[in-house]
Amino acid sequence: MEVPGFFGRLMDYPRRARQFLRETRSQMRLVTWPGGREVYSTTIVVVVTVAFFAVFFWMTDSVFSYASQWILTHFKH
């Protein structure tokens, strides 16, 4: 006899969890994992890109900070 509603879903949880784990395991077998050389090269690209944007945003922030300070001191009463 099937129990409807919340308790039915609760009782069905172990079966659904096993099915989820089985499907996850089968999908993980289909994944093509990157090699060490590919991981190294993409890590270098990420580090260089982050460094570039860090310098870019630092410079942009410095320019806007300088400009706002100049405006505030130039136009004060």
Give a structural overview.
This protein is mainly α and 77 residues long. It has two domains: 1-31; 35-77. It is 83% helix and 0% strand.
Keywords:
elongated; 2 domains; 77 residues; mainly alpha; single chain
Structure summary:
This protein has 77 residues and is mainly alpha-helical.
Number of strands: 0
| Helix amount | over 70%
What is the overall pLDDT average? 92
The stretches of 5 or more residues where confidence is low (pLDDT under 50) are none
Quickly give the structural class.
mainly alpha
Could you give the topology of this structure?
Elements: H1 5-29, H2 36-74
